[in-house]
């Protein structure tokens, strides 16, 4: 980083030390986009401009991937702020702010939208129904991890535990950087780091900031491998997988990908992984939990994602159970177990998948002799996605990815799930054979287009299965499915 950027950053830090709204200068060499103009202010205060950046997203048309350029902006605040968004290249006939559950109704005057925020939110601002040239607006909390001016000055020197990327464009030599134990990597607002940051066989590493990390092409911005006690907070990445690791905390991280197989937040063979307030818009599965895979061995336990937003331009918002030891180690390898998995307080904005094998906002595809049990989906709101199924729970043998069918899926709770829309295809719950079953699936307060689905719901003919009322096909080798 050059001296001019250091001085600018230090002056910026001093000026916002007690600020209630923090905007970030665009770093030298970082590309911006003018589809939208964004401003923010404390109520009644001075408007502050917010930099707008391009971000690539994936639209599948006629089974082919098409890269589109959307917009992205971010700022920090506390208290209450007013936000002003102006569409510069189209007349505004309609506008919406998502997730819809936030009930943010923008006021529209000409081509300008205004609305108020009283808490941090990760939002999609959409004009005239265009979801591929929208504005991703990340209204963050005030950053409590920002290093001091003294720490920034010492970054990179002997004895410093800080790697600092200030506002501007940074290309990592060799395209990847291994981070030693005990280090903090801080990517400042207005920074774009091109390459991959890797925590491999380390502990006590922190990835903090507001800036972006992504490779030159496809791939992981941050990769956590065989490590322990790793934190990530506030940064923007393409992908951030966790493999063979323990005690991982990922908070307020945004994952946006545009290329094929661009999974957002994979978990492989890891325990005690906690996601909070993350935003995923991905060109494949947003959130996955897998067992043995990519050289990481074993099952998964205690994986929690909460207070988050998922948007799958391709494949699943949530996918559990596909990969395991049968493929990686051998058909006679001991079964891996994936258990104690919780998704809580989630908004699912989209799901688009034509292939039936890979449909499902809630996908449990149990293969490779895996045992999948004790799964909870709690308080999840599903908006009107473009194509796919609401629920797909199967034990199956997918020869493309697995060497064997799964062993069992049992004890899955869907609590307070709502879906509003008309595009959902028929959901599927199915086992494999008498020895490989799905069992003990509970739907507690499933609401579809305002209708509560229950075994004793009024108007259900006695000869109907309750699943018929929800358009859920409950197949063979399935036991004890209840709707409360």
How would a textbook summarize the main sheet? 28 strands, mixed
Low-confidence stretches: 10-17
Beta strand count: 41
State which percent range the strand residues make up.
over 45%
Helix content: under 10%
Helix- and strand-based class?
mainly beta
Number of helices: 4
The overall pLDDT average reads: 95
Radius of gyration using CA atoms only? 23 Å
What overall form do the CA principal axes indicate? globular
Distance between the terminal alpha carbons, to the nearest Å?
59 Å
Features:
single chain; 484 residues; mainly beta; 28-stranded mixed beta sheet; six-stranded mixed beta sheet; 6% helix; 51% strand; globular
3D structure, described in words:
By secondary structure, the protein is mostly beta strands. Residues 10-17 have low confidence and may be disordered.
Give a nutshell description of this structure.
This protein has 484 residues and is mostly beta strands.
Set out the fold topology:
Blueprint (H helix, E strand, L loop, with lengths): L2 H13 L5 E2 L13 E7 L5 E3 L1 E10 L2 E14 L3 E7 L7 E4 L8 E3 L2 E6 L3 E7 L7 E7 L7 H6 L7 E4 L2 E11 L5 E4 L3 E10 L2 E7 L2 E3 L7 E4 L2 E6 L2 E2 L4 E2 L2 E6 L2 E3 L8 E4 L2 E6 L2 E4 L4 E4 L9 E13 L5 E3 L4 H4 L8 E15 L10 E5 L4 E12 L5 E2 L1 E5 L12 E12 L4 E2 L1 E4 L7 E11 L2 E3 L12 H5 L1 E3 L3 E6 L1
